[in-house]
Structure formats: structure tokens, C-alpha cells
Target: Transcriptional regulator
Amino acid sequence: MSPDLRQRRAVLEHEWSRWVPRLSVAGARPGGSAALRHEVTESWARSLSSVDPGRDSAPATDGGPVHQRWTSSPLYRPVSGLAGELRSIAEDAGFVTAVTDESGTILWTCGGPAMRRRAERVNFAPGGRWDEQAMGTNALSLALRTGRPSSVFSAEHLVSALHGWVCYCAPVHGPDGRVLGVLDLSTTWDRSHPLAMSTVRTLVSTIEARLATEQPRPGPVRLACLGTEQAEREGRRMALRPRQLEILTLLALTPGGFPPDRLRAALYGDRPVTASTFKAEISHLRRALDGGIAARRYALTVPVSCDAADVLTALEQGDTDTALRLYGGPLLPRSEAPGIEEWRTRLEVAVREAVLASTRPEHALRYGERAPYDAEIHEHALRLLGPDDARRAIAAGRLTTAWRD
Model:
């Protein structure tokens, strides 16, 4: 390690201790210092209104599943094409590599085990928010703010938990000039090297060149699997066999994907099915999705919206109205695949329990239309309906039918 690096870090630690407490006082402005860059002290001053310098990690995003955001990002394809090179650079040089979206949320990372563990401790990982308002002064936030490459060394970071880091990054611009995200190389401060910035610039230039020549991506797939069985893309029904619809449904409901043996078991259970038959179904679906299934661990790499997943999201948010509106019936009603049967039961139980927990009679009445023999649902509706409510006749009639059967 260079003595100059050690000296630089010591000076910056001193300046951080000197200025950050002062800038926390309302109305204070950063003063001049030969050791501190103006853009760093200005960022400190902005950041302190929302970020505690003593926080230990980046907050998590609340903007939806990160895997889906990544696979639908315009950076997904060009970065995936460079993934081998990015991993090699990160692992050989002791870096962790990250790609963010335009908001500063990390969508993808790679690196050796030691650096990834270190990064995960501060949530420098998919889902972590690294914009200035969330995590203060860092290279990612400066690059997003300025639209230019940026590096931040040791105690230039506002958050003290990052003082052991050095980060190099550059924004990635789309063909229209819009910033789509940032590519970052980060490592420990003692491995700081000027060539890291030129490496980042070169990689970003490659990504931008691929963006400029990339063909327009097909539209997202819409999968309807509640009470029906079909998938559409850009208004056209996709020619998928029942088994492929089962695979698509399982992958849409499991964003993290499956090891091949687990997906095979979810489809066939104990039935004797050859590996070639299973792989042929996967290959056909992959072609239909323009390659949109990862190879080693089967997972979707293209955006797929699914009514069953939307029902689960609505239930997680306590939105029983939306869940009932979207719940069109059992999941893939003709399927006997063990994984589908498991999800079918899970969905039916979740919707039913939400209805029984609701204090709104219209929820029980609506669900009761699809559950004519569920006496408990009809009794629940009657308990919630006022004595003069004309809808009591509907619930009472359904209850009588349920009792007879």
C-alpha cells in the first residue's frame, strides 16, 4: 500500500471530523479546504438534511421486486452480455461491481465472495438505495447528480461506515442522452488505483454502444391463469401448450427461479418423465419468450405480468377489493402439476381468509358467487349485512343451498 494513500485517508478523516458536525448545524455552509473537493462538501451539506452519518447500511427500496425491475431495465441485455467480463474484472482485482437504475437503486452486482460479503453488510446489493437523499455522498449519487464519471475515496463518503471504501463509477446514457443508471466498481481504500476509473469509462462506453445498436425489445407478456389459461404479448395470443403455461406460471410466481430438479418436480412430481422431454418444454418456452429464461437456474429474464401474482401483491397490501376483482377462479383449473396445485391452494386460502377477515359484506357476497357451497362465507355475509339490507336474501339463499349439499 502506498504511503500517500494512507496519508490521504488520514487527512480526509480529519477533515470529515472537522466539517461534518459543523454542516449539521442549520445555516452552516462548507468552508474552503485544500484537502476537500467542493463537490464533496456541497454534497455533505445537502445530504445531512436526510442522512445520519452514523447509519450502518443503505435503506432498501420500496419500489417493487428488484428482479423484475432488473429484467425490464434497458440495461439488462447489454450488461448481461458483458457479465462474464465484469465478473472477471471484479474477482481478479478484488472489486465488487454494481449497476443501478436512474434512481440510484442497485439492480445487479457481482464480485468475489469476500467483497460481496463486505458489500452486503452495507446493503451494497440489489435493492439498496444509494441516491444522495438515502445514503449521502458517494460516487453513485454524485455521478447521477452530475451526469459525469465520479470517484469517492474513504472519508469523502458522508456515512462513516463507508470510510473503508473507494468507489469509481460512471453514468450510462441511452441513445437519447437520458441517464439510465450507473456502473460502479468499488473496493477497499487501500486498493485505490487510477486505472479503475479508466476501466469503468471503457465498460460504460461498451454498454452505451450496445444500447445504440440494440433492436427494440418485444412488449411484456401478460399471463392470465386464474380461471383461464392464456398468455398474450402485444395483443396477440401466444401459442403455448398447457405444460409451457404451467412453466410460465410457476416462473412468474417465483421470481427467484428454480434449480432444474425442483422445477421438474413441480411439473411432474413422481411421474417418470425423461430429461429430454422436460428440456424440450423449457426450450420451446424460451424461444417463445425470445430467450427470456435463464439457463442454469430457471428464472424469467423478461417482464411477465401475471394475474395470480397481482392478487398476491394486493393481499400483501391489504387491498381485498383489488384481490377479489382480479381473482377470476382457480389457478390453471385443468392443471394437475404438483407445483400448480400447491399455488392454487395457497391462493384460494389467502383470498378466502382475506374475505373472512373483512368487515365489508360486499367482499363476502362477491366471493360467495364463486363459492356456492361455502357455508362459512355465506354466514359471514349475513352477520355483516344489516337487518334491512335487501342483499340478505342473496346470502340466505346461498347458505340454504350450501346446507342442502
The chain is about 50% helix and 10% strand. The longest helix spans residues 3-23.
